[in-house]
Amino acid sequence: MNQKLHTRNWRDKLHEIIYEADTPLGKFFDVILLILILLSIIFVMMESVKGLHEKTYQFLYYSEWIITIFFTFEYIARVISIKKPAKYIFSFYGIIDFVSTIPLYLSFFMVGSSALLTVRALRLLRIFRILKISRYIGESNKLAKAIKDSRAKILVFLFAVVVVCIIAGTLMYIIEGEESGFKSIPISVYWCIVTLTTVGYGDIAPVTPIGQLLAALIMIMGYGIIAVPTGIVSAEYAAGQKSAIVNVNSQACSNCNARKHQDGAKFCHNCGHTLFND
Amino acid sequence: MNQKLHTRNWRDKLHEIIYEADTPLGKFFDVILLILILLSIIFVMMESVKGLHEKTYQFLYYSEWIITIFFTFEYIARVISIKKPAKYIFSFYGIIDFVSTIPLYLSFFMVGSSALLTVRALRLLRIFRILKISRYIGESNKLAKAIKDSRAKILVFLFAVVVVCIIAGTLMYIIEGEESGFKSIPISVYWCIVTLTTVGYGDIAPVTPIGQLLAALIMIMGYGIIAVPTGIVSAEYAAGQKSAIVNVNSQACSNCNARKHQDGAKFCHNCGHTLFND
Amino acid sequence: MNQKLHTRNWRDKLHEIIYEADTPLGKFFDVILLILILLSIIFVMMESVKGLHEKTYQFLYYSEWIITIFFTFEYIARVISIKKPAKYIFSFYGIIDFVSTIPLYLSFFMVGSSALLTVRALRLLRIFRILKISRYIGESNKLAKAIKDSRAKILVFLFAVVVVCIIAGTLMYIIEGEESGFKSIPISVYWCIVTLTTVGYGDIAPVTPIGQLLAALIMIMGYGIIAVPTGIVSAEYAAGQKSAIVNVNSQACSNCNARKHQDGAKFCHNCGHTLFND
Amino acid sequence: MNQKLHTRNWRDKLHEIIYEADTPLGKFFDVILLILILLSIIFVMMESVKGLHEKTYQFLYYSEWIITIFFTFEYIARVISIKKPAKYIFSFYGIIDFVSTIPLYLSFFMVGSSALLTVRALRLLRIFRILKISRYIGESNKLAKAIKDSRAKILVFLFAVVVVCIIAGTLMYIIEGEESGFKSIPISVYWCIVTLTTVGYGDIAPVTPIGQLLAALIMIMGYGIIAVPTGIVSAEYAAGQKSAIVNVNSQACSNCNARKHQDGAKFCHNCGHTLFND
Hints:
4 copies of one chain form a homotetramer. The first copy, chain A, is mainly α. Helices cover 69% and strands 1% of the residues of chain A. Chain A has a two-stranded antiparallel sheet. Chains in contact: A-B, A-C, A-D, B-C, B-D, C-D.
């Protein structure tokens, strides 16, 4: 039994370092992880650059192996330090961790550059892990809340924008015709989205006077209605500022891995397991 | 008389399914309608794509016939289930329903691809029917209200923007001249709208130093005044948030087809006819 | 004396029609004026279009003469109906009225198309007269107030934007060099304004990796700081909504031509002359 | 000792003129400085223009010498009039003043146009001195405060935007491939930033249907989330409006050069030295 307690303590210790950011060692681990993820993303991006690739090939190749081995050990540590490994393995971040680690191993078994390219790009999914770490920053919580609260309204608004773009795009297809680059209704709708959102590439542009008049109306409208989502978020955000925000910490339950416990909580709000506050 | 009552009940039942979304059958009908409209819009858009058209011609042709026949039956059902058919037929949505259904029938009598193109595009008007269905979403009501309330101010603002564009466009026409692409005052005004709304196609761009200086001033101004409509909508929306919003449902009066009755209303607010709440 | 009184009454009547919009005749006069100004602006814009010009030359030529003669009579009526003509003649709108009326007369004495082009464009100054008429719309007063109140802050903000553009433009000039289209510091600053305001013509675009990185930073910054003027106007506008707005009418003093008298005022707030409320 | 007092008074006088803007002489000195800085910036920008350079070379050359000599004397005056020169010399503005003054002297010792170009551009750093002078404008203090308060949130937001751009850019790289101009992941991410911020150069644009669909989604998203920073600044600014703002003046302590003393303060808030209010 003593032996068992010892084992549990050892696994709890590992759990605390990997899953939580409240202890010095946990913070240090998160910082190391953050740096390795950022380096890894920069290396994957560099790999795709043609000229650069030849010159720094050796460096990128060995760096990628070192990082992949680190992430492999980290993945194994995450699985063994938790009581119910299945919960982590099949969670969103568990899948991200797995999928972003295996591409290098897969590259041994795969032939054909096209499929390999996609597989190798999977390593960029590690960027989601940054979001997991930065989740603990108070500001991003407030921001995420403001976006979440106004999500329904902004989606309805964006849906209305798409409907307007389909109608206006079809009109432009009839007015301008295929000689001006408005080759089909989908292309015209694409042009209309490019114009209404004020992006304006210029690869397709109206050339007939009536087409230019309609385009001007679409632009003026886009300039006028951009105010709508802003008004919504402003109001939601101002309302959110007033509501009390409960302080949660990054502590994770060693039994069910649930997070966001209130400061001073003694039991997991999800499974009732004791939380170790050391 | 019993026979008459039976007929009325049968027509009331149909009326409830087609015109209202409060009963399970009514909701089911609306969802089927929504899916068919969306499919129909995607098919019309696909039809305009050149390469795709040849390959999937057969599929699109038969699909369009099935959808058109469904909409034809639906139109007839709408006309016979209402007490005063003229009220529906000459309403905005009645005309939309009619005009978006007939193009396929008209295509038998018309020759000449150009006119036919426009007629076939009329089927896209079905998109307005989505707006009719989505009208019941609470969020879109609030959004529509916010836009409606600030409409007058935004129109005055956009009018001022157009006046500024006419003055600045004329100046650019004089400064840049026809060699730089500023071929006429209307074209210059069009360019000015493209610039002020920050779309910026780049098909016309100033080349003289003075023209570029004026263009820079227009951009800076456009960047500064985009705040004005936003401020208006924000204020209107924040004010709208505070005012009480009466809950209305989608029930339509079987006598006059008036809608937006308050929850629990027993008589039509328009004609005083009894509302059937079953 | 009776004769003199009669004359004053006749001139007062004319003054009321031309300068005020509270009587039916005054409103009718304003509407006629508005239509003629709009027609006139459309004609001037059409005149600059090459192909159209040849075809509709005769029509535009005679229309312009009719409109110019109307504006000439209107100008004379404005001068004789006011007690102190100098006050009107040297006011902003007096100069606009004069300068926008004479171009057609001047075209007899001038030779050389380039100077003539500028002179003829002066007719477009009539657009300012629309602003004078639309001044009476309540919404535009509120809008003008909101812009006026936040003018100082927006100017300081735009000044800061220009300073940022000069620094970033110089950096881009050094990084990209003249081969990429960044030919001089002013051109680079112009490009930077085009980018920061999210217009993005694409006539000049960075091609070196470091240039593209800096450009991305400028864009991200532009995307982030566009919020600043919006926040200012929103706050000013919300504050302005609360303050009481005094109702003013369009009545002009027949002595000093001062306007914006409060409803029910009996004497001019500027010179103390009696106001005729009939 | 009397001699020493006299010296101190003479240096205090100079200190007041150069470092403060509360006395007429101090204000006059600031205005002269502002004009010279602006002229200097215009001259540096003109120098880079090719055609202009040859024509006005002589004028620009002598002007630059006059301005540089003035700034040299000003720098020396700033150093000798302060009690602890090291504090000024190694402050941000001290370094700016030094670095923006020496380029002309350095140009004697340097050969090679490329390095010289960068050194000469250092003179543009004088623009930061405008910010130092304009710091005393109340509006810019409020603006700076609003930006400062919402800085953390906007940075978190912009970081999230960059993460989204890396993910979407990689997707576009896989979808569009190198033939469409998406040559590498960094280039694709750059394109994605150009699109999301609604700049839209058009030098790179998607050509495949799936690429255009994804691009449309990115634009719609960019159009929707631009509301987020605006909502943040609006809320911060509105909150800032309510908080009391203490009036500070431009007086600088002659001992430690600390600034922003409250109106009517008699001793430096930093070192306790007497402030001379004459």
